[in-house]
Write a structure and sequence with these properties.
437 residues, 73% helix
Length: 437
């Protein structure tokens, strides 16, 4: 295993480009595939790319806020103590890897945005406290928990088809989450991953010679302070806890009202809202809060620049019909036994180019649902097969790793050597579940 890990890391370090170059190469690849497998012309493919380029602006801003508000919350004194308490249970590098995997999986199952941020921040806290743990594997383990998100409370596909008025209601009706997220087959796969992933990540620990650690001092932040007698009226406002408390309480009141009306229904906006106003309260003063924001925003450049390119790729994939061509190719070789497996596999491949659960479902659903009815297959299980495929290849898709990498201060190639192996192992677990449950 250690030899395999070493080889995988060396290959990724040598050949995996920066995520920006990766998305540029992916753009050119989709452009070429569109010309080969669809009837689109070069000019049409350029038009599809340009039309889609800005379609993820709102989502891009949400992802920037996931990173910024999560970092701000975690850098507050109170939350640091909480993460430190959790980290105190890790007494060795191996236990640190297991604990961060489990915590990340739980957080991602609750909400995908929550999991992305909490996992990376907790990994940093463990790196400060546990000597000899490989920092790259810590972050990879934290990111690996993301694989269960689409089988959890924020799964966009199962939640979509459980909502009255969804786009495919005339075809399949409304499918309750008891048949998708809380179906026995889904829960068994999730439980199996909760066992297999921590063990896998523990086994991925590199040899002592190849372990890369970080100096805990690099994570220590120092806060600038002003002498009270030197404060101007403006300085006093910036250092006033009263303003932070008033604004923070307003946010908490809204959240309380929201949860009373909607139950524990988390979405990306609510997660960001929660992180933001807890951050304001926990930092105590506007000055400390803004200093944390300024530090957090430094890591958002990758999201700002790369997400429009992925939106352009999605535009080419959907408008040209390339995503449909890929899906139909897998359906054509399926039967009533292998259909769920090939639906999973096709979704995993399409996810490289359309890294959005909702967007991917909009493209694949007509083909997959029609095939399910033709083969007399379960519509609910078909939807979950697509959902699992979407979540699965996120493990090696830099699009989703960007927030975690920004928090960690690492590059994609630093963790992808581990993520490739985790991808294979988790893929086997999910595939067996879809074939035999």
């Amino acid at each position: 295993m250690k030899g395999l890990i070493s080889l995988s890391n060396k290959i990724m370090q040598r050949y995996l480009p920066d995520p920006f170059l990766f998305v540029v190469i992916l753009t050119l690849a989709v452009f070429g595939l569109g010309l080969i497998f669809t009837e689109s012309s070069s000019l049409e493919m350029v038009q599809y790319w340009g039309d889609g380029f800005w379609s993820l602006l709102a989502f891009s801003m949400q992802m920037v806020l996931v990173l910024v508000t999560g970092y701000v919350l975690a850098s507050s004194p109170l939350f640091k103590r909480f993460l430190g308490f959790l980290a105190s249970f890790a007494k060795s590098p191996g236990s640190a890897i297991v604990i961060v995997t489990v915590v990340s999986m739980i957080a991602s199952w609750i909400n995908w945005g929550f999991g992305l941020v909490i996992g990376a921040l907790f990994a940093k806290e463990l790196a400060k406290r546990v000597k000899g743990v490989d920092y790259r594997l810590l972050i990879a383990s934290a990111y690996s928990g993301f694989v269960v998100w689409h089988a959890g409370f924020s799964g966009s596909i199962p939640l979509s088809i459980a909502t009255d008025g969804h786009p495919f209601q005339d075809l399949i009706g409304v499918i309750s989450t008891t048949e998708t997220i809380f179906a026995t087959s889904t829960l068994i796969i999730v439980a199996a991953l909760f066992i297999v992933l921590p063990i896998t990540n523990r086994m991925l620990m590199p040899s002592k010679e190849e372990t890369i650690t970080v100096d805990p001092e690099l994570f220590n932040e120092t806060a600038a302070t002003l002498e009270k007698e030197a404060m101007t009226p403006a300085d006093k406002l910036e250092n006033s806890m009263i303003l932070s408390i008033i604004v923070g309480v307003l946010g908490i009141v809204f959240l309380f009202s929201y949860f009373v009306k909607n139950g524990f229904a988390l979405n990306l906006d609510i997660v960001n809202f929660l992180f933001l106003f807890l951050g304001i309260l926990f930092h105590g003063t506007p000055k400390r809060f803004l200093a944390a924001v300024q530090e957090a925003i430094k890591g958002a450049s990758g999201i700002v620049i790369q997400f429009p390119f992925y939106a352009g790729i999605m535009g080419m994939m959907t408008a040209s019909g390339l995503a449909v061509v890929m899906s139909e190719a897998f359906v054509s070789i399926s039967n009533d036994v292998t259909f769920y497996f090939f639906a999973f596999l096709s979704a995993g491949i399409v996810n490289f180019f359309v890294p959005s659960g909702g967007g991917q479902w909009a493209v694949q659903a007509p083909i997959m649902l029609d095939a399910a009815q033709t083969l007399d297959a379960s519509v609910a299980k078909t939807a979950m097969a697509v959902a699992w495929g979407d979540a699965w290849t996120n493990l090696i898709q830099p699009f989703w790793a960007l927030p975690a990498l920004a928090i960690a201060g690492l590059k994609a190639k630093d963790i992808m050597g581990y993520c490739v192996i985790i991808l294979v192992i988790s893929g086997v677990v999910i595939s067996l579940g879809l074939l035999f449950l």
